[in-house]
C-alpha cells in the first residue's frame, strides 16, 4: 500500500471515504496518480474544477496576484474583490455581494441575513424551512438545515430555527410556515441528495408563497451555480428568481471562495453585522474573477448545455438497453444515474480500475459532476467504461 495512504490512516481524522489513489497532477478533465496512471475525472473536485485542472487562466491569475498582493484583510479596499463583486452583480439580478471562503460559510451568512430580515420585517421570525435530502454544509447550523438525519446524530443540542420538509412538496412548505418562519432555503437541483431536480411548478409556487407571506427565498447554488446546469445560475433553468443566492465550489475553479448575493431589499446587514478574515481576499478574488471572465467569454454554460445534453442522451441509450437503470436525471453537467439496487459503490470502484473517477451520493446513485470543459470524446470514453463496468457488476449481482 502506498506510503501516503498509510500516513493518512495514522495521521488524518478518518472522516473522508477516500478512493485508494494518490493524485499528484491534473490537466483539463484528466488527473494522474503518484504511479503515473491517468484517470478521466468526472468528479471534478466535487463540482469545483469549472475550467478543468490547472487551466492556464487560473495558474496565471494565481501567480500574477501572488506577486502583487495576497492578503490584506477587509479593513482596506482591494481591487479584485470589488471587480468580482461588480461582475457578479452586473451578470445577475442581485444588488450586493459578500465573500466567504466556502459554501457552508456562505449559507451561514445567508441565514444570519434572513434572520435579521425576520427580526426587523416579520415580527422577529427566525425559522428557516429546508427540505429532506438537502445539503447545506457541515457547521452546526448548516447540518441542522441539511435534510439528512445521519449527519446530525451525535452533535446535539442542535441550533433551533430549522424545519425540514419533503422536497418538491409545496403543501408541506405551506403547512410548516408559521409566525416564526422567516425564509425558505432550497437547492434548484439537490446534488448531495442524489441529483434531485426541483419541479419548476413547485419553485413557482414557493416563489408566490414567499411573496404572499413576506418570506425570504434563498437558493443554495453552491453546487448548481456558475454554469453547472447549463445556465450561468441554476435558477435560470426554472426562471424563478430567489431573493438571496449562495455560491462557492465552481466560483473559484479550485481556490476556496464562497459568496452571498442578495437583492437590495433583503440586504439588511449593516456595519459590524458580519465579517471574515480571509473572505474576499485578493488572491481568491483575482482567480475567481479570471474564472468568471473566462466562463462568460467562452460561453461555458452554452458548452455545458451541449455536452451535458450529449451525455444525457448517451446515458438514456444505456438505460434503454439496461432496465436495472431506473432513472437518468439532472441538468447540464450535474447528472445522476439511479439503479434498482445498491450497486453504485461497486460501479465507482470498478470504474476506478478502468481509469474513470466517479462519485456516488447514495447507495443506488452514481453522480457525474465533471469539469465544465468536458469534451464529447471524453463523454464517449466514460460511456464505454461505464457500460463495460455495469455489465460486469450486474453479471456478479443476483437479480
Ligand atoms: C448545495 C451545497 N451547499 C453547501 C455545500 C457546502 O459547501 P462547502 O463544502 O464548501 O462548505 C455543498 C457541498 O457539497 C453543497 O453541495
Number of domains: 2
Oligomer: single chain
Helix content: 25-40%
CATH classification, class level of the largest domain: Alpha Beta
**Unreliable segments of 5+ consecutive residues:** none
What's the story with the biggest beta sheet?
Answer: 7 strands, mixed
Helix/strand order, N-terminal first: HEEEHHHEHEHEHEEEHEEEHHEEHEEEH
In the CATH hierarchy, the architecture of the largest domain is 3-Layer(aba) Sandwich
* CATH superfamily grouping of the largest domain: Type I PLP-dependent aspartate aminotransferase-like (Major domain)
The pLDDT mean sits at: 97
Number of helices: 12
**What class do helices, strands and sheet pairing give?**
alpha/beta
Strand order of the largest sheet: 4-12-11-10-7-5-6
Amino acid at each position: 500500500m502506498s506510503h501516503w495512504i498509510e500516513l493518512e490512516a495514522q495521521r488524518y481524522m478518518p472522516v473522508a471515504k477516500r478512493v485508494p489513489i494518490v493524485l499528484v497532477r491534473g490537466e483539463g478533465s484528466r488527473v494522474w496518480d503518484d504511479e503515473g496512471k491517468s484517470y478521466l475525472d468526472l468528479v471534478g473536485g466535487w463540482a469545483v474544477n469549472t475550467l478543468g485542472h490547472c487551466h492556464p487562466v487560473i495558474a496565471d491569475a494565481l501567480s500574477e496576484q501572488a506577486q502583487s498582493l495576497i492578503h490584506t484583510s477587509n479593513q482596506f479596499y482591494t481591487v479584485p474583490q470589488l471587480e468580482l463583486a461588480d461582475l457578479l452583480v452586473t451578470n445577475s439580478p442581485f444588488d450586493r455581494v459578500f465573500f466567504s471562503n466556502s459554501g457552508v460559510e456562505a449559507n451561514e451568512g445567508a441565514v444570519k441575513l434572513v434572520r435579521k430580515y425576520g427580526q426587523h420585517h416579520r415580527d422577529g421570525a427566525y425559522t428557516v424551512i429546508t427540505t429532506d435530502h438537502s445539503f447545506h454544509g457541515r457547521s452546526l447550523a448548516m447540518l441542522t438545515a441539511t435534510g439528512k438525519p445521519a449527519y446530525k446524530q451525535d452533535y446535539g443540542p442542535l441550533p433551533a430555527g430549522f424545519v425540514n420538509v419533503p422536497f418538491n412538496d409545496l403543501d408541506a412548505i405551506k403547512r410548516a410556515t408559521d409566525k416564526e418562519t422567516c425564509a425558505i432555503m432550497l437547492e434548484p437541483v439537490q446534488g448531495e441528495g442524489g441529483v434531485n431536480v426541483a419541479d419548476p411548478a413547485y419553485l413557482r409556487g414557493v416563489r408566490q408563497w414567499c411573496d404572499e407571506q413576506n418570506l425570504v427565498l434563498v437558493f443554495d447554488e453552491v453546487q448548481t451555480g456558475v454554469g453547472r446546469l447549463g445556465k450561468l445560475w441554476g435558477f435560470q433553468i426554472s426562471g424563478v428568481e430567489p431573493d438571496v443566492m449562495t455560491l462557492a465550489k465552481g466560483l473559484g475553479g479550485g481556490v476556496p471562495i464562497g459568496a452571498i448575493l442578495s437583492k437590495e431589499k433583503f440586504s439588511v446587514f449593516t456595519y459590524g453585522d458580519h465579517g471574515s478574515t480571509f473572505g474576499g481576499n485578493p488572491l481568491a478574488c483575482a482567480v475567481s474573477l479570471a474564472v468568471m471572465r473566462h466562463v462568460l467569454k467562452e460561453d461555458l454554460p452554452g458548452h455545458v448545455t451541449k455536452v451535458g445534453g450529449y451525455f444525457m442522451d448517451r446515458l438514456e441509450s444505456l438505460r434503454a438497453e439496461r432496465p436495472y437503470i431506473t432513472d437518468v436525471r439532472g441538468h447540464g453537467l450535474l447528472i445522476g444515474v439511479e439503479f434498482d439496487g445498491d450497486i453504485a459503490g461497486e460501479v465507482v470502484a470498478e470504474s476506478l480500475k478502468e481509469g474513470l473517477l466517479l462519485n456516488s451520493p447514495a447507495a443506488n446513485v452514481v453522480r457525474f459532476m465533471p469539469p465544465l470543459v468536458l469534451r464529447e470524446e471524453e463523454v464517449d470514453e466514460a460511456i464505454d467504461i461505464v457500460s463495460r463496468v455495469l455489465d460486469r457488476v450486474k453479471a456478479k449481482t443476483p437479480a
